Amino acid sequence: MMDERSKSLLKTLIEHYIADGQPVGSRALSKFSGLDLSAATIRNVMADLEDMGFVASPHTSAGRIPTPKGYRLFVDTMLTVQPIEEVVAHEAQDAIQADAPQRVVTAAAQVLSNLSNFAGIVLTPRRSEVFKQIEFLRLSEKRVLLILVTPDGDVQNRIILTERDYSSSELVEASNYLNSQFAGLSFYAVKERLMQELEGLRSGIASLMEAALKASSENMTADSGVVISGERRLLNVGDLSSDMHKLKQLFGMFEEKTSLLQLLDVSSQADGVQVFIGGESALVPMDDMAVITAPYSVDGLVVGTLGVIGPTRMAYERVIPIVDITAKLLSSALSSGIHNK
Q1: Given pLDDT bands bounded at 50, 70 and 90, which one contains residue 221?
Q2: Cα(84)–Cα(313) distance, rounded to whole angstroms?
């Protein structure tokens, strides 16, 4: 367990390091901590914090810098998030207005980048999260065309390979059942309810509906993508671009996008703002990188995630509310866009 004196000195060290990027020595800690401690006492506390893995000593300096473990403790227990400035909130609100989903998502990524001065990322909404109407059309033996109509009028088609042949009347029966019982719900909600109701249905209809739901889920996942804005701003962050290896890692991540998709997909299952710190999270590919994320929704249903990519040495108390308000504004804009159609 860490005592209050050690926590206070660690908090001071991290805040000072975030502010100027230089290793923090015992003299600076004595000056900025407000604690009446001797330099020898501070050195002993720093040695203990280093033994516990919260700080490290660069080879070229007598001062210390935070480790990923130190940043995690700071973010989880010591951070006081600042209310977002009114002018910043208005700037975000003006930029993110109800529009075509792709334009709103792009605007949100740009807002995240502009306000944070780092890179903004948005996992685009999964298509067909909610359906308005569903139809089945027999193509040939064991091949059925699934037709989905979303609330915003988007029509999507998917071919289903079935275990047996279905008659036209069976397909109409399945369509009518789904439309009467589940129209307006998400596919996830449909799945949960069907698990309880399928036993009471004839097995042929049950398997057909299970195949439709599986095809729809695959369609949603396949259509997910990442919109990135401002990645070149990270070239100005010395912690991330100080050597060629880091630069290759950084832009390899943006080009590949797989790790970003995994990170954002995990974030969509969380409630509220999440902070991922490189070096402690396998989802963040670089030790000096942090990603702050939040899920966004349409009519209360989570459909994607957005966030800011920056260095671990960032002003978390300022960036966290930027991510939070952008997620809320994007949710509102997308929901309004559907209702206005």
Answers
A1: very low
A2: 20
